[in-house]
Each structure stands twice: as structure tokens, then as C-alpha cells.
Amino acid sequence: MEKMFYLSNSEKERYEKEFSQERQQEILRRAARDLPIYTTSASRTIRYCERCQLIKPDRAHHCSACDICILKMDHHCPWVNNCVGFSNYKFFLLFLLYSLLYCLFVATTVLQYFIKFWTNELSDTRAKFHVLFLFFVSAMFFISVLSLFSYHCWLVGKNRTTIESFRAPAFSYGPDGNGFSLGYSKNWREVFGDEKKYWLLPVFSSLGDGCSFPTRLVGMDPEQASVTSQNEYARSIGSNPPFPIKPLSESKNRLLDSESQWTETGSEEGIVRSGTNNHVTVTIEN
């Protein structure tokens, strides 16, 4: 984890002394002002890990088994006794592929003896049990690993993690399960890299640093991205949004804008608070 996501000693001291969650969030907002963060928690607050005492990068989560924050965490795998995340997700997929091919090899090579066993053409030896055991175990593992491998291939094509498939990440315009999707081809390259010759080899070739990720709206035209973000947000909350939606062109696709901050109110008025003392009130007329 990069040092810029950790609070400084002075910030950490002020954070621990505050008992108000609003004051704590204000400290976190100031600390995260220049960080490449686009997502928040479901309650629209800064994602902060109390155990690791750091601001969580996008797609990072704390693993209770490993007791550490994992970059682009997918899940904790008991089969490998480790967390699957940014640094080893490609290796996990190759592990599934290699296991799949191995089970297929065992099942096909034993199949002829398994057929002889059922037709009573196999000699009455202790090898009968071995043939029966090998075929059933390899076949069952092949089916189960094939299901898991197919599911993760689907996740790679969507550029999602297992956690994000169950709980969509929250952006400035609301939850969006496709927020990090860049298209099928680019999504695969995010995990396996640009060099196809390394795709099937157990060498690290994933793109990025694991702390920041390109989002679906970054490369769009500002006006188109603004309309897209508003449509995504409207679908996530219904037809009556509780407060005005900030155009993406104003926020520059940054969740934590240092110059302005939008707040929610219980009425039909949205208040924009800027770094100056000027206040502009926007009233929505029905």
C-alpha cells in the first residue's frame, strides 16, 4: 500500500481525539483531497480502515482473516490460504485453468479403464478401486472448477471483483456495478496485460498499480459523461432524486473535489458550499 493513503501523525492524532463522526469525516476529506479516489461507502462517507489506519483506495477492502487491507480484493481463498487481489488475481485464474486442464487429462486417460470396469472387461485386481476413484474425483473437480473458472472469466469481462458483484461500488452519482468497466477487450488487458505472449504464463503482467483504476466515464466527453452519470444515479435511487446531481464536467470526474462540496438537505433545495464565503442556493421547481 502506498504511503500517501496513510494519515500523517498530526492527522491521525486529530482524528483519534475527535468523537464526532462529522468532524472525523472532515479530517478524512482533507486528507483525501489529492488522492485518486472515486468511490465512497454506501453512506457516502470516506472509506477509512480503523485497523490499518489508512484511507482505502478504490476497490480495496480489509480482510479479517489476513488482518490487512488488500488492493482490489476479490475474496479470501481457503484453498490457497491467501487473499486473492490485484497482485495475484491473474495467478489465481491461471491456477483454475491449470487445474481444469489437469482434471480433464486425468478423466480422459482413465475413461477407457472406467468403461472396461462397467463392462466387466477389467481384470479383478485392486486397480478397480483406483480407477473408480480417479474418474469420479477428476470428473467432480472438473465440473466444480469449470463453474468457478467460468464465473471469474465473466467477472474479468465485466471488470468486477466478487465483492463488487454482490455490492456495487458507490460513485459520486450513485452505485454502479459497471463503473470500472472499460469494454470487454480492455477489461481483459487490465488483468492479463497488453502482451498476449504472457497471458498463459505465471508471470505478473497486470496493468496499473492497484491503488487507482480508470473509470468508465473518464474517457467520455464531459457533457455525455454528465448525462450518463445522471441516468445511472436516477436508476439507482428511482425517479425522485433527493438532491441535485452535480455535472461531471464541474467535478472533473473526481469524487473528492477540493474546491466544492455538495451536501444533502431534507427539503427541495441543494446548497453548494465553496471554499469562499459565497453561498448559492439552487431551488428545484416542480
Topology:
Layout: H1 9-17, H2 21-31, E1 48-49, E2 54-55, E3 61-63, E4 68-70, E5 75-77, E6 82-84, H3 89-118, H4 127-158, H5 162-166, E7 170-171, E8 174-175, H6 184-192, H7 222-237, H8 248-251, E9 260-262, E10 269-274, E11 279-283
Antiparallel strand pairs: 1-2, 3-4, 5-6, 7-8, 9-10, 10-11
Low-confidence stretches: 221-228, 233-254, 256-286
N-to-C span: 48 Å
Largest sheet: 3 strands, antiparallel
Instruction: Please state the CA-atom Rg, rounded to the nearest Å.
Output: 25 Å
| Estimated helix fraction | 40-55%
Beta-strand proportion = 5-15%
Q: Can you write the helix and strand succession as a string?
A: HHEEEEEEHHHEEHHHEEE
Tally of contiguous helical segments: 8
Strand numbers in spatial order across the main sheet:
9-10-11
- Mean pLDDT comes to 80
Tell me the structural class. alpha+beta
Tell me how many strands there are: 11
Overall spatial form: elongated
Describe this structure in words.
With 286 residues, the protein is an alpha+beta fold. It contains eight helices and eleven strands. The strands form five sheets. A three-stranded antiparallel β-sheet has the order 9-10-11, with no helix packed on it. The protein has a two-stranded antiparallel sheet with strand order 1-2.
